[in-house]
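Justification of computing resources. Each target in the renewal requires a structure prediction run like the one illustrated here; the chain below, 91 residues long, is used simply to show the kind of job we budget for.
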Amino acid sequence: MYYIAPSFFADARQARIVFKPGFAGNVREDYRTNPQDWLEVGLMDSHGALRCLEAPEHIIQEFQACAPLAAGLQIDELDIPEPVIRPGPRP
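Resulting structure tokens:
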């Protein structure tokens, strides 16, 4: 599960994007009570744009498709199929 964590600072100019593989449940509550279990993988700026994200390309594309981004956004990696790579013709 990918989650754009709300900032705890009033003047924050970016929000953290965190990841917990295979998580199912109340994301916001789990992140609030167990932030150490989540891995920081990216940043969103104050304009809702993706600044950086360490994730597979199809996940990055899903974030880009949701732009402008907002804190609280959840993207479940299990709901987004990986692209099928078909071999090209042989020479």
